[in-house]
Amino acid sequence: MRNRFVWLLSAGHLFTDLNQGALPAMLPFLIAEYNLSYASAAGLVFAANFLSSIVQPLFGYYADKSSKLWLMPVGILFAGCGLAAVGFLSNYWLMFAAIMVSGIGIAAFHPEGARMANKVSGAKQGTGISIFSLGGNAGFACGPVMITASLLLWGLKGTLILIVPAVVMAAIIASQIKNLQPYQAPAPKLDAQQAQPAETDEWAPFSRLTVVVFCRSIMFHSLNTFLPLYWIHVLLQSKAAGGTALTILFTVGVVSTFLGGHLADRFGYNKIIRIGFVALVPFLAVFTMANNAALATALLIPLGVTLFAANSPLTVLGQKYLPSRVGLASGVTLGLAVSVGGVTAPLVGWFADHYGLSLALQLLTGLSVIAAVMAFTLPVPRSEAKDLKNRTIVR
Predict the structure, then answer these.
(1) Start and end of every Major facilitator superfamily (MFS) profile domain (predicted)?
(2) Is 8 left (phi over 0), alpha (psi -120 to 50) or beta?
């Protein structure tokens, strides 16, 4: 595993998803300034994900056909600059458009970034992808802290700070493209005697995996979008406390993502995915019924562990199910997964407007049960089963 490049890609992931973490923390300020409803605020999250959900698989598909490393720095730049513009716009639909530009940038980065992380990870794909995913979760954790502090200091114009990390990281990634190019080269062709039968894509298991990923995405994005608002309007805490709650969840998620990938390399991807989702059910059920700030804060720790432990194993498992379409698999499990959660956010917001934010979040427990059940339908990938069989024969 080329650690230098894995951490470089992870840093790119951090500076991209920094913007996804910042957007929900901006919502209380936008609601206060423009008197937005929950549904309208969630509509801005929808803006970041609607077009992204359409183009992300396309980026992944074309990454498999012809890798375009320049999409990574361009994606980072669009992600930061689009969101930075929001604080300077007073028209809702102009904000919607600016956030949509940010979403396109995020969509451009993920498939190519995950594909390259897979390439430079070598045999330790679980660890490599967990490091890459760790960067994304760190971005979600840092985003609320950074933008909340900036908005408290300078008001909505404080969104301008998001341009700085975007420009810096885009320049660093662009400077390393030549060094990454050798890893995207196809493997040398073998002669007829050496040639191994090509691994076939397993579409049926991948489809079931996608259901699990989408359920997790909706839970993840609903918490990401409404957690600060829950802290402010239900638990009656400050805006700063709402941003802090989001940061706690994603900080725990950073550690859990790394450990989940490391444990998956050792004990198997399927096992870690199943344990994570089964344990998530009771913690999520108790959390969504908590009406005490101290209890809710304490529950963020086990909630973060169980929600994020399966993150990188799901990505690697998707890549193993589609060995000839790693970019497409990454676009779905890492990119489209997040987008689907964002697209459903307005529905959760509409429900919260009509029936209360607490009840809206309680609906997530049902999704955690579906994800846990579906996790047990996922088979071991053929390539992994073949390797296990060969090791058994050698012994």
Answers:
(1) 5-383
(2) alpha
